[in-house]
Structures are given as C-alpha cells and as structure tokens.
Amino acid sequence: MFGRKVDNSDKTLTVNLNRCPQSHRCPSVSVCPVGALSQVGNAAPVVDLDKCIKCGKCVNFCPMRALSFK
Question: What is the pTM of this model?
Fold first, then answer.
C-alpha cells in the first residue's frame, strides 16, 4: 500500500538469482541511498548487509522483483 511504512528491521535483503537476468547493469544499484548494493559487470548485485538500512527503495525499484526482504 502507498503511504504505509513497512518495518523491515528484522529481515534481510536477498537477491533471487532465478529472477535476476544478469544481462545488464542492475537499475536498483543506483537507487540505494547508502551504496549497499554493488555489481561487477552484469552479474547479480551483491548486498553489503553492514551498509543496508532496509529502506526498501531497491526492492520497490527492481523491475524483475529479484530483490526482496526475507
């Protein structure tokens, strides 16, 4: 729902490799406000859990729904 903040504090950001096409630059890397996502070449993005603030911007931005909180 729009306008409702979801609490992800007890969850971990994960990358579903089966949903990530790994054929282009990940668009979600650029929306992370703290640089917690990185990518080498066209590989799936890697999450730095020490940097991640669990804001969910990358999850909402991923067109393939490859990023999620579990």
Answer: 0.88
